[in-house]
């Protein structure tokens, strides 16, 4: 074995072992909850304190599993049903009404529009200090 092959093998073997140590079931559970096209957000403000976005959340679209800060969402247009799936597998349905304001605690969850209509939403996410 050449010297460069030995160095490469010395780097790859620990990397492969480390990758095997990452817990896979939690990742598989998160991917299972995220079925459907991903909702596209238009970022209006993104600084060290807040992230403000506006988007159209169409039926079947998903906001993927991710850690999110405390947030306030206002439904500007439309009525729909949102299915929230938390990292522990727990689910909840939320009825969004046009003009409604919804507060969500910091969490690790995904959202899917399981309703029959789209909703235009405006969201403010507070970032940790």
How many domains make up the coordinates? 1
In helices, the fraction of residues equals 10-25%
**Oligomer category:** single chain
Number of helices: 2
- Tertiary shape: globular
CATH architecture: Sandwich
Per CATH, the superfamily is Jelly Rolls
| Alpha carbon gap, first and last residue | 52 Å
Please list the strands of the largest sheet in the order they lie side by side: 1-2-9-4-7
What is the string of SSEs from the N terminus onward? HHEEEEEEEEE
Strand content: over 45%
Average pLDDT works out at: 83
Uncertain parts: 21-33
What is the number of strand segments? Answer: 9
CATH topology heading: Jelly Rolls
Structural class given helices, strands, pairing? alpha+beta
Q: Compute the CA-based radius of gyration.
A: 20 Å
Q: Tell me, what is the CATH class?
A: Mainly Beta
Question: How can the largest sheet be summarized?
Answer: 5 strands, antiparallel
What does this structure look like?
This protein has one domain (34-126): Jelly Rolls (Sandwich), CATH 2.60.120. It contains 2 helices and 9 strands. It has helices at 3-20, 24-33, and strands at 41-46, 50-57, 62-68, 71-77, 80-86, 91-96, 101-104, 107-113, 119-126. A 5-stranded antiparallel β-sheet has the order 1-2-9-4-7, with no helix packed on it. Strand 1 (41-46) and strand 2 form a beta hairpin. The termini are far apart. The model is unreliable at 21-33 (pLDDT under 50).
């Amino acid at each position: 074995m050449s010297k460069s092959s030995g160095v490469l093998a010395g780097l790859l073997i620990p990397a492969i072992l480390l990758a095997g140590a990452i817990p896979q079931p939690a990742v598989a559970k998160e991917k299972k909850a995220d079925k459907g096209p991903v909702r596209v957000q238009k970022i209006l403000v993104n600084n060290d304190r807040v992230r403000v976005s506006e988007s159209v959340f169409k039926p079947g679209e998903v906001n993927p599993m991710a850690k999110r800060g405390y947030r306030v969402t206002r439904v500007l247009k439309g009525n729909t049903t949102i299915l929230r799936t938390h990292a522990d597998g727990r689910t909840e349905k939320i009825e969004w009404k046009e003009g409604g304001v919804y507060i969500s605690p910091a969490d690790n969850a995904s959202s899917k529009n399981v309703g029959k209509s789209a909703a235009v939403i405006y969201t403010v996410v507070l970032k940790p200090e």
